[in-house]
Write a structure and sequence with these properties.
Blueprint (H helix, E strand, L loop, with lengths): L13 E3 L43 E2 L30 H4 L3 H6 L1 H22 L8 E4 L3 E4 L2 E4 L5 E3 L4 E4 L2 H10 L5 H20 L16 H19 L12 H13 L2 H9 L12 H14 L13
Parallel strand pairs: 1-3, 2-6, 3-7
Antiparallel strand pairs: 4-5, 6-7
Helix pairs in contact: 3-5, 5-6, 5-7, 6-9, 7-9
Length: about 325
């Protein structure tokens, strides 16, 4: 994964709130799995499930609203407006100017990756006569207040459909490697970020509405299909990334192996074996390791978002 040294980065797409901590208001993360919720407000599903007591880390979409009282999502009515999060980049603007900076700094690598992902999706939407609306990535530590509530770092990376932002605590990547056996590496990080932007694309296209208020987890559930589609979209970006102008050359097999390792590490079956010693398909929310690897590969091999229809037929 080598950036073009002369590529011009846009750090305004990434907010750095690590020094400021969570904004006032909102509770802590509830334990356990939150089931999908729907209704007005545009938050179509809960695809980020954590089982904090068991150390379960996944990434996906956070529902809104959620509270810290352990009762799961609050239901009904209009969604609250997103709390004000300062549109700041800390010193990213000074440090992250070119692809050469992305080669030297993890923060700048995130900026460059986000820039490439959004450049691709803007082009892809334009080719289909649609308008892509960009989403910021928010770098945080420990906890952050979002349009979907206050999230603890244990939640891992996630997308909040209410404020249309991706939230990322960089310590997650150490956890992914140390506790879940992923290879790690720069492209594992890029895969995770691209997966979250896959959820943003789903939000813009209305696909999240396919995960309704009565949806339940399970091997063929809408939530699993939504997550696997986000994996496929991540692969589509990877196929087309060099065309965005941010990378020097197409990704190597080593890069792709890092992504596949990360995808396998957070498969439902792999997580369940590690945390409870058995596999429970009725509780699946993201798909098996094999499915996550497979759908990323579908996107990467084809480079075509149309091939990412996980809602038709078997998965």
């Amino acid at each position: 994964m080598q950036f073009d040294d002369d590529a011009q980065l846009d750090p305004s797409q990434v907010e750095d709130v690590r020094a400021s901590g969570p904004q006032p208001g909102g509770g802590g993360m509830p334990g356990g799995c939150m089931l999908p919720i729907g209704g007005r407000g545009g938050c179509g599903g809960c695809l980020l499930l954590i089982l904090a007591a068991a150390g379960l880390f996944l990434f996906g979409v956070i529902p809104s609203p959620f509270s810290g009282q352990g009762g799961g999502p609050q239901g009904g009515g209009r969604q609250p407006s997103a709390p004000a999060i300062p549109a700041q980049t800390g010193n990213l603007a000074a440090r992250c100017r070119t692809g050469a900076d992305a080669e030297q700094s993890e923060d700048c690598r995130v900026v460059g990756t986000v820039n490439s992902i959004q450049t691709y999706w803007r082009q892809a939407f334009q080719e289909r006569g649609r308008t892509y609306k960009p989403a910021r990535t928010v770098l945080f530590s420990n906890a952050v207040n979002t349009g979907c509530g206050t999230a603890d770092a244990a939640v891992g990376p996630f997308y909040c459909p209410v404020d249309r932002k991706v939230y990322l605590d960089l310590s997650f990547f150490n956890t992914l490697q140390r506790d879940f056996g992923a290879e790690g590496g720069p492209f594992a990080q890029a895969y995770v970020v691209a997966h979250e932007y896959g959820h943003h694309v789903q939000n813009l296209l209305g696909t999240m509405n396919r995960v309704g208020p009565d949806s339940r987890p399970g091997a063929g559930s809408p939530s699993v299909r939504l997550e696997l589609q986000a994996d496929c979209y991540a692969g589509v970006w990877a196929h087309n990334a060099v065309k965005t102008g941010f990378f020097r050359e197409p990704f190597s097999q080593t890069d792709i192996d890092q992504a596949l390792s990360a995808a396998a590490a957070v498969g439902d079956d792999s997580i369940q074996r590690r945390t409870q010693g058995r596999v429970t398909p009725d509780a699946f929310t993201h798909g098996t390791s094999r499915q996550r690897e497979s759908w990323f590969s579908v996107g990467y091999d084809s480079g075509d978002p149309k091939r990412c229809d996980t809602f038709s037929g078997g998965i």
